[in-house]
Amino acid sequence: MDQVHHRAMDALQPFVHLADSGSASSPRFVANIITNATSSPHTYVFAELLERPAVQALRAPDAPAELQGYLTLLEIFAWGTWQDYQQTPNLPALSDEQARKLRLLSLISLASTIKPLTYESLMTSLSLSAPSDLETLVTTAIYSSLITARLSPATTPPTVNVTSVAALRDVKPTSLPSIISTLMAWESRCGSVITGIEQEIAKIRLESARRRTSEHTRMVVIEKTLAKWNPESGEAITSGGGPAGRGVSSTRKSGWKKDISAALRGRDFFGGGSNKREFDDDAFFEENANEVDALASGMDIDEGAGARTGLGNAGARTAKRFLGKKS
């Protein structure tokens, strides 16, 4: 659609240059420029031509009355419709090219304002008597890239489904205040939306900072607790969990495994008090590292002539003990 607008602007430039030339001092010459510009098949925007001083001079009181209508006709081509032409008196007659051009321009405006766009409403607005004439006009607009549409003659009622229109209509000066008001209202709504988004972002950041602080505090407490109960550390802890010097304190100067082993060395595994040969953690006798309990039973073996002769005698002597016999 932007390419269509650029092509329309380029097509208007020759007529703008003619309006700025020295020959444009003649009202009749200016009227001919307007007629040719509105009849050209590629001109769809006319605001730049309408602003030329030579064209605006047709509005002067001393301009011929029969030529003043050309300025009004150019304004209708710029932002009016076919109905505006029909309702305005004392306008020049249109050629077939001008009539087709004004109907195409009116179709762009109607497609932007009327929903749904039925055959009946279009034929009434464009003064067309047959549906085939309307379909021919719509097809021309589609192939000229003025609108993107699809004809639906079999629906009830028959409609023209328009999905997009080209930005080829000029803005009427009297409509500028309403456009400015609409844009200002839109800007205000956008500002409110942005403010709400910024407030939500601030809340999210505040909540995230709070969670990070809470997580950091929790991790510090966990690390301190783990440090107090670390078996390999020499940190002093009290029975009440407080620092050393308050209440009954104890110092973990060695690991818990060493503490348990030292406590077990002072007792017999069978509750009979201390024994000079106890089975240690690695299944060796304390007195002699070469003496091994063949059954790995963890109990003492009676001393005797055959106690250290071999694994077989040790196993037999141990079995006798279990049976209540002693050699």
From TrEMBL:
Write out the ranges of the annotated region (Disordered): 233-252
- The answer, when asked if Secreted is one of the entry's keywords, is no
The UniProt record lists the PCI domain at 4-165
**Alphabetized InterPro entries for the sequence:** COPS7/eIF3m, PCI_dom
Q: Does the keyword Transport apply?
A: no
- Keywords tagged on the record: Signalosome
Query: Which PROSITE patterns does this one have?
Result: PCI
Note the SMART domains from the entry.
PINT (SM00088)
What's the superkingdom here? Eukaryota
Q: Which family does it belong to?
A: Belongs to the CSN7/EIF3M family. CSN7 subfamily.
Fill in the subunit field for this protein: Component of the COP9 signalosome (CSN) complex.
Its name, as the record gives it, is PCI domain-containing protein
Q: Which organism is it from?
A: Aspergillus pseudoustus
